[in-house]
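Dear colleagues,

As part of the handover before I leave the project, I'm documenting each prediction I ran so the next person doesn't have to rerun anything. This entry is a single chain, and its sequence is reproduced below.
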Amino acid sequence: MELRHLVRVLEDLLKEPLPGRMGQQAMAPVPLEEERFDSRRMERARKGAVLMLICPFENGIRIPFIKRAVYEGVHSGQIAFPGGKMDPGDKNLEETALRETEEEIGVAREKIQLLGVLSDLYIPPSNFSVRPFVGFTPHPPIFSPDPREVARLISCDFDWLLDENNKKEKDFPLPSGQTIQAPYFDIDQEVIWGATAMILSEFLTIWKNK
């Protein structure tokens, strides 16, 4: 698929009403946590943003994910889109997404063109309301992950994400000692689940229903 065609289609799709919960919950942990869709919790929660970055390469189109470094926190070692919390100096969440992407994977914000946003999602364990942005780079980027924040960068082929065979399900251990059942994306021997999987699910719902 050519980048120009993909960008043109996405520009139109992201102007339409978003599927929101309908698209997100397909990859939500079971049992479904209703608080993830509670608008009042989102309003009171800490604010953050992530970026789904579409990048051209010689062999097609790829999307970068990061494996977070190990730290004292609920999202330690998890796979995510580049992004993070809104800083006091950020004018808006768009700036947050671009700044965090530049800091985490080294793609300069001026080289990124935003196409639109997906639905906000509340993340109960960390009390964050996250806004996912979708953007692209016109040319192949040179990634430079920050080793303090990124343990590994995973560059995933766009067509691979469309393959339903890469959706699986298993039990995940929780810090409380309990386990939770959840669907996940198996990407390059890494597990993408929880909020990142739900964001990706909404994007794929939009793309497949075009």
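The chain is about 25% helix and 35% strand. Helices lie at 3-13, 21-24, 39-44, 93-105, 158-161, 194-208.

All the best with the project,
I.
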